[in-house]
Amino acid sequence: MNERAVALSQSEGLVLLSSGEAVLKGVLEAEAEVGMLAGPARGGFELIFDGAERTGVDSILREYNVRLQRTADAVRGLRVARAAAERGMASLAWVPNDELDECVSVLTGWRDAHLKSGVGMVILLEDNPAGCPVTCPRQTSQRLELVAIEASDLESLKIAIDEALRLSEVAHAPVGIVVHQRVLRACETVRAAPNSKSESLSAMLARRRQREVARGAETNDVLRTSRRMELNEFSAMPIRGERVATGFVTVGPAEGAMRHLVDVLGLHGRVPMLHLKLIEP
Q: Which phi and psi (to 5°) does residue 16 adopt?
């Protein structure tokens, strides 16, 4: 087993991952068993195939019954993932920013077609404002009433896959994860967690205890569930009655930039910030 396969098998500590490996690690760590990954090898998502084709990684995917399918375009990838979900298999697809407009009609047609109970489907939406300034995945999600969260970095992306699958099970509909193109081109050190099938009994019980509150509240109310999951994060909030001149609301990679700026200026703990991970609704 080579070092990249070891990285995907790691159950604790820090590990260096590319964006494609972070997606694969997120799939392996997710509580739901994801059986299908589908989409084109472009728009930053080609790194998913690069990570999967490394020696040893392909055997891990087979062990977890994860199938990776390269499609000609994003529309075909969505349909492959949807077909897998209709067969009772959790799935993940991705859409490059410049193909999003072509996928709108497909996503619109799925508005009233609910997924099977207990089955999740996640769609990664590339945000590339420089290469495709006209089409914004956040606005498209809002227009389609597509539940969506946004990743701020690779660790956030890895964790977001499990979160989106859980929200999808609640909504009985696909859930989007908006990912900025800069994040898709990054390589970062992230915290590893046990893969769903390889974790020990004690780790499994600990994972379930951590999610017990959120799981118990999961109804068809996505907003209520997202609050229990604490997707949106507050920091340095003022105490009751205190007035603060300035606060910030961040989305996506702006969170990391804002935290860095606050630390450089020596204002840590003095500037209120609200980081929005759930962007629709």
A: -90, 120
